[in-house]
Amino acid sequence: WLQMTEKNVYMHPFGSLITNVAAKAKLAQKLDVDTPQNLWLVVRVGHSTEPPRSERLPVSDIIIS
Q1: Which end of the chain is more exposed for a tag (fewer CB within 10 A), N or C?
Q2: Cα torsion for 8, 15, 39, 3, to the nearest 10°?
Q3: How many CB atoms neighbour CB 18 within 10 A?
Q4: pLDDT given at position 31
């Protein structure tokens, strides 16, 4: 992933396949996959300018010590 980014190749994950059972089932049908539970990471990959940064919470707001 880091080497791809270095060459302006970026991945866009489709997170809804993890949380949306209907979307996962539809993709499994399109791909003719018998075990939809095995579909856990699907990405779009391509050359582009750097995409916008994700507005994530700071680590200090996530980690409870």
Answers
A1: C
A2: 20
A3: 14
A4: 86
